[in-house]
Fold this sequence. Notes:
The chain is built from three helices and 64 strands. With 706 residues, it is mostly beta strands.
Amino acid sequence: MCMKPIFFCFLACTLIVSVALSPRSWAQTKTNTYSVLPEKDAIYFYVSAANGIDKLPGGTISTPFKTLQFAKNFIRNSRWQFRRHVVIFIREGIYELNEPLVFTTDDDSFGQTRITYAAYPGERVIISGGIRLKPVWETRDNRTYYLAFNNPRISNIYQLLINGKPQPMARYPNRDTLNSTREQFVLDSAYVFTDSAMRISANHLPIKKWLRAGSGILNIMDKSGNANLMYQINDFNAEKQTYILGNGGFQTMQPEVTTGCTYFVENMAEELDMTGEWHYNVSAKMLSYMPPANTDINKATADIPVLSSLIQIRGTDKDPVRNLAFVGIEFYATTPSSFNTFEQMGVSNWATTNSAAFQIEGAEQIIIANCRFRSIGGNAILVKDYNRRHTIFGNDFQAIGNNAIYLTGNSKQLTGSQRNYPADIGIVNNRVLQTGEKIYQSAAICISTAQNIRIQNNDFRHLSSAAICFADNLLGSHQVTGNHITDFGLSVRQKAAVMAYAGEHAYLSLRPIASQTNFATIENNLIASTATSSAFAVWLMEGIQNFNITGNQFMRAGLSFSAGKKRKITNNIWLGSSELHLWAGSDSLSDDEFSMNIISDPTAKRTFAYVLHSSLSPEQSFIKTYNNIWHFNGTLPVQHRLPSGSIQNIPFAEWQMRCETGSLLTDPLLNQDGHITDTSPALQLGIRPLNTTSAGLLLGEFLHEK
């Protein structure tokens, strides 16, 4: 394992306290959240949307400022006076922004002390990018409700939030929670697809006549099954069975639509026929909504997101913004990024928008702690280009349209004195639920062209795609430790909790830059799949190198790595896993190792281990395979892929004799939690007990539904 810098020597509860504030300034309040408490030597100012006023003198607890923008400008103009920690306490309320709050080097305290924007202890503070309607709904049948309004800030609606939660657009075919195959169509041989039109089968024609097809959205999975494309529909010609397409199709870097791809259509007025669905008629400025049963629509809150970004920190590598903290704040209601400009991230095949609810570019020592990101249409946090020593701790992410946290550097500015990439950043003790709600090619945390990112003791679940994605491992030294991951890959074909995704092309032009010694470490994590189809705990794709995977417990989730080098998989336990894909090339310098692991699936009904080699015979593989314990039906064969692509079944005993040394086919004698007992034969092979019992949140489920 690589050496851990001093920056990452955290102490459980005082993790960011040691970096930011004194430990006594942090405590758990009656509302079960964490907040900043008064410090003796700090300077305090106050903001209150309810009873504040934007004038000077002011900013006191009795005469607070009213808006965050005024408070920020006051700090900017007065900062030369401050030589102590400055805290801006924000009192309870909803702070609707007309534009993002932008912080530059004019807004820090010359890097000498910290400036903290914090929710007042025990109070709920919401910074919103939406407009809260004061609706007077009308209905003719007590089933569908209508709201006409004319707000110059609302040109179109791509997200409707009722009681704080995103509602689904009217769609065709309808959602089907019991059978997902019925909620989308499959392109057959009748389809014709271009960037401007899509011809469909007559079997897929809508039963209802669409009068205003120009408001629709086409959502289609690309050939890989791992990314979705979205197009605005300009028109629909039923006679020619053709959608006329407008803006869209750029949500992934390498889209391909072919036979077998699935699709559905959203936002057609005539398809508003299920509870929870809504439709917006742009020309009539009319919102239609079918509330779920037991929803009092006249008492429900209704928000329309209009901003894509709430907080922006803008500096440069030569003049970074320093020492800002944001604590205990709820960030809410940003617009979906589906039709924003998408860019390639780093050297990967992934793409995302250059925006987020919270954007950081050119900064040092930024803290985002105990905040909540809820109903965010695009990325929640984007850390772009030069960034150093940030802490993202104890936050709660829920209903995120794209990535929860995306860290990316500029792959063209990595040599000499140019260091435009994120480094030395801790992402610890966060809970992430429901990412990729709009864009499937997403992750809870995605890393591209960054260095020394520590992802520790987080809880990830209910994810459209991966929990953690390394879009490349150019700079390395990342640490993924003590995380709990479950319910991943819900919307994509290739289900992986942790994936490293970059083609060999990523390294051909950047070979001098790519680190040959800085390894990424995946250690002491607990990963469990609930999928009924194939799922992988870790998937290292073509061209990925320098990974240590050790001390993890994987339940019903296998392993796959393609051609690469320097991947060391040791001392892990697989329980109920059915697939191991180990693909080694003929490069004698590949230096791959699969050793001292336990693979237990005694009820396997099909071939247990797929060991894929591109060499002529298994024993010519350059994977070092030794001292493993295999516990399954030993009569099932190993599959060996020949250079021609054909499959050769090899009896397991023969494969062991030809490819392994010191391994056993026996019961590992694990306890009911899947851990090694004192009598386990694993101990004789040098396999050590795991340390995954503390995987997940450090402080328990302290973040709760409000």
